[in-house]
Each structure stands twice: as C-alpha cells, then as structure tokens.
C-alpha cells in the first residue's frame, strides 16, 4: 500500500510540475517559438482546456477498463503530451501538445483517488487520497522551482523533457505497485453518467468552481500584487511560490485525517478560514513579513478544501465515483479561469492590486454558502468514504472461498 500511494503521488508530482512550471517560463517559450509573451500565455489556457474536456471524456471512454490499466493508459497519454511539448517546432504545435498533455490530468486524479481510497480501510480513505494530492503540493515546492531554473538555464524544452522522463518513472511505479481492482458488472459510461446526475454531485461541482475560484483570484495575481503593493523584487518570485507550496502541503496533510473524522465540518472550516485569510491578505499585503505569513495560510486553506471536496463527490456518486472524482478537477480548472477573470476585473476597474483578495474572500464565502445548501438538501447523508463497486460474481466466489480457508 505505501509503495502504491507513493507511485500515485509521483504521478501527481509530474502533473503539478508541468501544469505550473509553464507560467515561469513564458518569456523563454515566447522567444523559442517566435511569439509575444501574452500570446505564449495562451498555452497555459491550452493545458486548462485539455483538463476541462479530458476529465469527463476520458473517464467515460474508460468506464469499463480496470482502474490499473486505465491509469497506465492515461499516464501514457500524459508522457506523449509532454514529449510532444518538448519537441514542438512552432507555437501551433506547442498549443496542440499542451491541450493533449492536459487531457489525462483530471482523469488521472479521478481514477487515482478512487484507487487510493480502496487501498486502505474505509476509515482511512481520505488520508490515502490526501497522500496522492501531496505529490501535487510538493511539486510547487520542488518541481516548479527546479523546472523553472532548468528551463532558464538550458532552455524551456529541457523542462518538458525532464517531466517526460519523470513521468516514465512514475508510470513504471504504477505498473509495479498498483494492485488490480476489477470493475463491477454494472461498470460503464451510463452507470457513471447516472451517478453524475445526483443532485449532491452537481452541487459539489458548483461549490468547487465558485469556492475554489477564491483561491485562484489571488494566486493568479500573487506575484504582481507582491511586487506592486508589498514592494518585493521580481527575483523573489520563486521564494513566494515555494512558500505557497509549503502552505499547500501543510493543508493537505491536515485535511486527510480531519476529513476521515468529519467530512462536511472540515469542508465548512476550510472555506471559512480561506475567506478569512483572503480578507486579511488585503491588509497584510502592504508589509513583507505579514504578507508572506498570510500567503502560507492561504495556500494551506486552498489545499485544505481539496480533499473533502474530492471525498464528498466520491461519496455522493456512490458505486460510480470515478467520473465525479475526475470532473472535480475540471471544476478546479474552471475555478482557475473564473477566479482569475474576476480578480482581473477588479484590478481593471481601478480597485487596486490588492482587490483580488476581497474578490477571492467573497467567492470563498459563496462556496461556503453552497456547501451549506448541499447539506440542507442532502436527505441521505453518507459516511466520508466512497462505497466500493460491486465485484463480479466470480470474484465474489473466490473471495468467499478465501475467507472460508482455515
């Protein structure tokens, strides 16, 4: 079990690195493919587009494929997408490669979360899922700064090449350590779509889009906020992003055991504390040390709500949680786009560089309100862990025979 979770975390580390490292290499990428920096920024959107489309699409296509085999196939697509990014000769090819690399992102996290939850006892499911997410947060501490430094020193193509190599290592780990988990006899895209029709799943996804948008309203403008308001230098960008990653890692470590104990209260506390932290940041951003402390806290609360949101969707989707778990990451990317857009509107309106913090706080409070609405409409509250898919009759017979042995 620990090695299987480590393999899942390694895959998450590669995904987190390739998703966020691009933002720090836009000038080098622009020079490399002969476009302006703003135009090069479209490849960030290209990856997000791949995530939003690919999560439900690939999960639906692979609805009947056993989870381990599906994970290996998805990671294979991810490897090809990053290799194509490293070799892209023009901006058009690079744009297409980033869309392709983003397609398996949400599906890997969705399938991986279901696999992780079923590797352990039900009362430890959230902790197992959070251990996989830990790879994503550590990527912000190690992978993104290292990838940025590598790209600035040797060229941006080497960064994507390094991600490709690391992804092959993660793929080998998944092949070696993930156990076979058979799909149930009812597995299929209709079964998954029926689960997605659950009202609680829909409310959960909307909650993720709105509430997590508060996190991205600030994250998207964090560097210009700190340089224009706090007065920090551009060279401090790597430190700030690493601190954000430290906060995210702490939040992930806390969220797992707390979600196992009380799912909804953990979610409520996360949204409330995120809203408070963002509101406080509006005032602390004017001073370096308080600003950095608040940055760590915001990162902590942002990742803190990820695990209970993931577990809530998996629980409410019951015996077909894979598409719901994957769609959660589509929701996160929509939150990224929406939060950045609303934060940008506030800046453009002349409210100042610190204004995205207030926008983000409002979105987090809206997410909290939606979470309460979901609880009020929930007539059948479940335990914090997803229910297992039914196994095939043959597997059930074998299991019964095994349990009958002395």
UniProtKB/TrEMBL annotation:
It comes from the Bacteria. CDD domains: MFS_NepI_like. Residues 383-406 are annotated as: Disordered. The chain crosses the membrane at residues 42-63, 70-96, 102-121, 128-146, 158-180, 201-223, 235-255, 267-285, 291-313, 334-353, 359-377. It is a multi-pass membrane protein. The keyword Heme does not apply. One of its GO terms (cellular component) is plasma membrane. It is found in: Cell membrane. Keywords: Cell membrane, Membrane, Transmembrane, Transmembrane helix. InterPro entries: MFS (IPR011701), MFS_dom (IPR020846), MFS_Efflux_Transporters (IPR050189), MFS_trans_sf (IPR036259). One of its GO terms (molecular function) is transmembrane transporter activity. This is DHA1 family inner membrane transport protein. It comes from Actinocorallia herbida.
């Amino acid at each position: 079990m620990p090695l299987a979770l480590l393999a899942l975390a390694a895959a998450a580390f590669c995904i987190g690195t390739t998703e966020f490292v691009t933002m720090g290499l836009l000038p080098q990428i622009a020079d490399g493919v002969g476009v302006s920096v703003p135009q090069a920024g479209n490849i960030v959107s290209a990856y997000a587009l791949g995530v939003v489309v690919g999560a439900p699409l690939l999960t639906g296509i692979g609805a009947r494929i056993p989870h381990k085999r599906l994970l290996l196939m998805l990671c294979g697509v991810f490897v090809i997408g990053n290799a194509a990014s490293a070799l892209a000769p023009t901006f058009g090819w690079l744009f297409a490669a980033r869309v392709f690399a983003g397609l398996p992102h949400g599906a890997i996290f969705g399938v991986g979360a279901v696999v992780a939850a079923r590797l352990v006892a039900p009362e430890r499911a959230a902790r197992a899922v959070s251990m996989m997410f830990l790879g994503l947060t550590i990527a912000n501490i190690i992978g993104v700064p290292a990838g940025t430094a590598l790209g600035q020193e040797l060229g941006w193509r080497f960064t994507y090449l390094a991600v490709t190599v690391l992804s092959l290592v993660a793929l080998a780990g998944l092949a070696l350590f993930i156990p076979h988990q058979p799909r149930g006899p009812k597995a299929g895209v209709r079964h998954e779509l029926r689960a997605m029709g659950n009202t609680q799943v829909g409310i959960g996804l909307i909650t993720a889009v709105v509430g997590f948008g508060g996190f991205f309203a600030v994250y998207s403008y964090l560097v210009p906020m700190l340089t224009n308001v706090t007065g920090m230098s551009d060279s401090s960008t790597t430190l700030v992003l690493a601190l954000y990653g430290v906060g995210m890692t702490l939040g992930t470590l806390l969220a797992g055991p707390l979600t196992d104990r009380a799912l909804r209260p953990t979610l409520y506390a996360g949204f409330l504390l995120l809203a408070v932290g963002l509101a406080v940041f509006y005032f602390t951003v004017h001073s370096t040390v308080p600003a950095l402390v608040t940055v760590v806290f915001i990162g902590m609360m942002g990742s803190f709500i990820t695990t209970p949101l993931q577990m809530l969707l998996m629980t409410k989707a019951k015996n077909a949680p894979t598409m719901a778990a994957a769609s959660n990451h589509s929701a996160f990317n929509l939150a990224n786009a929406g939060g950045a857009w609303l934060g940008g509107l506030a800046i453009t309106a002349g409210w100042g560089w610190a204004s995205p913090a207030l926008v983000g706080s409002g979105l987090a409070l809206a997410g909290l309100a939606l979470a309460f609405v979901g609880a009020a409409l929930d007539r059948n509250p479940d335990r914090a862990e997803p229910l297992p898919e039914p196994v095939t009759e043959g597997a059930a017979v074998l299991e019964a025979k095994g349990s009958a042995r002395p």
